[in-house]
Amino acid sequence: MSELDAFRTEVREWLEANCPAEMREPIRDEDDVCWGGRNFKFKNAAQKQWLDACVSKGYTVPDWPKPYGGAGLTPEQTKVFKQEMKRIHARSPLDSFGIWMLGPALLQFGTEEQKVEYLNPIARGEIRWCQGYSEPGSGSDLVSLQTFGEDKGDHWVVNGSKIWTSYADKADWIFCLVRTDKANKYQGITFMLFDMASKGVTTKPILLISGNSPFCETFFDDVEVPKTQFIGEINRGWDVAKYLLGHEREMISGGGAGGDMVSIGGAFAKAFGKNAAGELDDPILRAEMAAFDVDVFAYRAMGERFMDMWKTGRAHPASSNMMKYVGTELNKRRHELVMSGGGSEALEWDSAETKGGARARGWLRTKANSIEGGTSEVMLNVIAKRILDLPGA
Amino acid sequence: MPLYHNEDQAMLKDSVAPFVAEQAPVSHLRKLRDTADATGFSRDLWAQFTDMGLPGMLVPEAHGGLGMGHMEAGIVLEEIGRNLTPSPFLSTGVGAVAALAKAGGTQAERWLPAIASGEAIIALAIDEGAKHRPDRIATSATRSGNGFRLDGKKSFVLHGHVADMSIVAAKTDGGITLFAVPKDAKGVTVDPRRLVDSSLASHVTLDGVELDADAVIGEVDAGGDILDALLAATRTGAAAEMVGVGQGAMDMTVTYLKERKQFGKLIGEFQGLQHRAAHLYGEMEVARATVMKAQELLDQGSEGARLMVSVAKAKAGRAANLAVREGVQMHGGIGMTDEYDIGLYMKRDRALAEYMGDVHYHIDQVARMNGY
Q1: pLDDT given for residue A31 in this prediction
Q2: Per the count of CB atoms within 10 A, which of A23, A29, A163, A227 is most buried?
Q3: Is the ipTM of this complex over 0.90?
Q4: Closest residue of B to A276, CA-based?
Q5: Are the CB atoms for A131 and A165 separated by under 8 Å?
Q6: Cα(B108)–Cα(B180) distance, rounded to whole angstroms?
Q7: Chain B residues with a Cβ under 8 Å from any Cβ in chain A
Q8: Burial of B6 (0-12, 13-18, 19+ CB in 10 A)
Q9: What are the phi and psi torsion angles at A92 (to 5°)?
Q10: Residue A271 confidence (pLDDT)
């Protein structure tokens, strides 16, 4: 048996012994997701038990080094681990902007002390992070940000506001882009970390067309941030931000917004009934769903290739923009088909049968996929410029 | 296996890519076309292919081949696609080999070494009408003496007019049976037609063709699995070639966007064109990944291969089609001229898209395999 096969057996046995049955059910509601953090309330004992088990093995962040709370797995082992998780439909033990975004940036840019100090609590789900990038009026043009940190010697005094800060009202800490030099557009931004409980920080949820409020406005009013709490170099936060955005796009395209990549036509076959030939009883919708399924299975292959190449440094640095563009457009198409497939039932906004209009709300939510984390148009600009090297882009 | 080329595969690409680009660039196709070459490909080039061991790539080592996989064959096919190189590689080196290797037996022993040594060109006689419908094969094979008698009509048989042997799919009492029909068999009429991409494909009439019992490839009535292997290999190969065609067209077009000026600007500066080019890039990348996934699953003998083969043929079909359409449009008037190569890419894409099932056929297959 090869080492990798032995590892697979080990993981399989460990999962069998440690992943509770409740954690092998599909995610149904937002509160099925374990976000961790100071104020997180576990939905049930299984959710906590699953998190604790994974934390003890470093499996919340399997590919992070052991001193920072990970399991130190190689890319090949990580792939095996994910395959085995998927095989038993195991839920993610911990969802976290700390894992997806800040962690990779810290691993790349942080000092040894910062890595030890910040990564371990992320891996254990103790601190819930939010991301302070966008500002009112900035949209995808992130470098136009105005939130300003005034140099006061041993600390900055930060004033300004952020928008679209996902779950800012539930987060413990924020990683934040702050202008520290007004004269320089790109090299005048510092990547700061601070406690959301600091004096002068307030948040306000934003109600969306889906009827939900995952996003907030966040206001900074004379917030004091110690001078030690920055990543990378002062005034070079844009380097960190760019790196991190690559991971954000990877996340949005691969996991969250890419959706669960299964056959959509298969899912609706029962609801529609089939004709004598065993085909979905709406030939036009059947054709559209099948064409969509082709794109979904194709995108899944692309996701696998992207991860294989990304993890081994073979991918073009801007290929995450392509993944984000293709994945989010695909997910929007999925939800248009979900609404068509659901018919009048999918229109219901508050019935128990529809779990409070889950499909309609989900459909509306996906419209943000091609806006958040950089719009599709900005993704295409980046591909044109950085990959295709087109002029003047 | 990771979905990128390993060191050996990268080395193969490094030797095949310059070879095809130097020996058989688009001008090679033009020359064959302009001289109305009756073979449809260059025998000299095929001899060079043989020197490199390419026809026998998929042939098992026991039969004199290199025993490589679909991932490796795909590397060659992509370069063939990129250069619009006419050759019998897909039908002979991929489709026929897949069928014969799956079947084993006397026909495999007879033909696999001949393919590997470059001596044999094999044609695949599957289709019977204008559209690919292998589930409706009507060509009949009835018992006659010690062997069989074949009657029927085949169409879209690439290299049918020069093939040393044709693999003919026919209906027998209890199922499908594949036959090795030699070049000189009595009762076979081959009518080659020049296609839009300048290749030659034949209408083949089988009129009371008498064959010995050992002409059967595999077992009587049990040709379904062998046909499936042939189709999976050929479809995946065609998809790989289409990725090459699409990539070739896209590269030409992106280069043109950086050179051509209109309204005092390089046209590549216009956001309208940038976004379309970037969208095309994404589609091509996804298509390439999908084809590689299908190749990987085929090489592993995985059950999931069937689905992914249809996904790959459909996705590569869509992406390459977008690449050639955008290519002609973005080139403007010059893209419509015979002198410029982009139109040749459009023509080859059309022929490959139709070969062994078009986009719609494979989308329908994906629906069926998912139970709707």
Answers
A1: 79
A2: A23
A3: yes
A4: B372
A5: yes
A6: 10
A7: 2-4, 254, 257-258, 265-266, 268-269, 271, 274-275, 277-279, 281-283, 285-290, 292-293, 307-308, 310-312, 314-315, 318, 362-364, 366-368, 370-372
A8: exposed
A9: -65, 130
A10: 74
